[in-house]
Amino acid sequence: MSVLSIYFRKWLLIFPFAGIVFFSFPAPKAHAMDPVTIGLLAPILMPYAQQAAAYAIKGCAKTVPGWINAGTQFINIFRLPLGVLQLTLGVPFGLFDCGIENTWKGLIAPFLMVKEILCMPLYFCGVM
To answer: Residue ranges of the chain with pLDDT lower than 70?
Structure first.
């Protein structure tokens, strides 16, 4: 059996299943709101929007520590190349210990930054 026939058989199995999956779900439909309706509802809903804005502003203010922590971790990412340089070129100058510390902090910084960004909704709600 040639390689081409094996490749062709694989695609003969994939295409029908892909077609079944693709055509099984209906196409999404757009639901638009009439501009006149928006104009009529805006004065009615404005007091509620003003009350919600106060809570939104408080929530955004509570996320500031999270953004600061995420920015700090973003800057700590640059400690990885610094640590590698200290581990290689800085050994004769006694920078091995600093190199290990900077390399470690640079390695874990992306994960800590993602953790901080994923915790933003918790900061917004005041949980953290």
So the answer is: 1-4, 6-7
pTM for this entry: 0.64
Residue type, 47: P
Q: Which residue has the tokens 């909704």?
A: 121
DSSP 57: H
Q: Do the beta carbons of residue 62 and residue 92 sit within 8 Å?
A: no
- pLDDT tens profile 52-72: 999 999 999 999 999 999 999
In one-letter notation, the amino acid at residue 109 is A
Residue 107 · residue 80 · CB < 8 Å: yes
Please name the residue that has the structure tokens 């029908």: 16
The answer to whether 72 touches 85, Cβ cutoff 8 Å, is: no
Query: Is-contact 124 66, C-beta < 8 A?
Result: no
